[in-house]
Amino acid sequence: MTWYYQGEKYLDTPEDYQGFVYIITELDTGKRYIGKKNFWQPKTLPITKKRKRRVRTRVESNWKDYFGSNKELQQLVEAKGINAFKREILHLCKSKGECSYRETKEQFDREVLLTDDYYNGIINCRIGANSVKKGFTNLFNLWHKIGAGQWCYRTLTKKGVKKWLKLQHKRRRLLTAQTVPRATLTWGLW
Fold first, then answer.
1. The domain containing residue 178 runs over which residues?
2. Is residue 189 assigned to a domain?
3. Distance CA 98, CA 158 (A)
4. What is the pLDDT of residues 72-124, one digit of tens each?
5. Long-range contacts of 77-83, Cβ-Cβ distance < 8 Å, separation of 24 or more
6. Is the pLDDT confidence value at 136 over 70?
7. 176: nearest Cα among 187, 161, 166, 165
8. Number of folded domains in the chain?
9. How many CB atoms lie within 10 A of CB 137?
10. pTM (predicted TM-score)
């Protein structure tokens, strides 16, 4: 049983991606499971005569044979066989933080806890802001005014996003300190 990504078989372990968010569908009932899996796992090589220090490296995980961490799903895979399920990759992720973020977002968007169409029984997530910002700063594309009524499209770096957020916070503080009705507030980008 193979993984599918964008309708095609996915067999290679990519060097530049840390993991992926997936959906496993039971073909008989249509019931699904959303989760995440890392392509790589850390490995520490021990001290030897030639190596004075431990060396941290990474090795390929068991992602090709993986069928989720849900016990009910694992029992069904054993009982029905792997051909009764379809495994699809929804997102390829460059970091563990991005992987956690995308998995949680998919679970909330699909409301996996509110319906019986999913095997998911819990949404558990712990994400640091830095890992999400680091992974998504290149997605912050903003329009800003360059003068004389002209607008320019700009892709921000991590530094630029921080600067923009600080500026917005300052403006918000200044505008809320004044007694201006909220409906008349307009927000500019720069």
1. 140-184
2. no
3. 15
4. 999 999 999 999 999 999 999 988 888 998 999 999 999 999 989 999 988 88
5. 80/26, 80/28, 82/1, 83/1
6. no
7. 187
8. 2
9. 16
10. 0.68
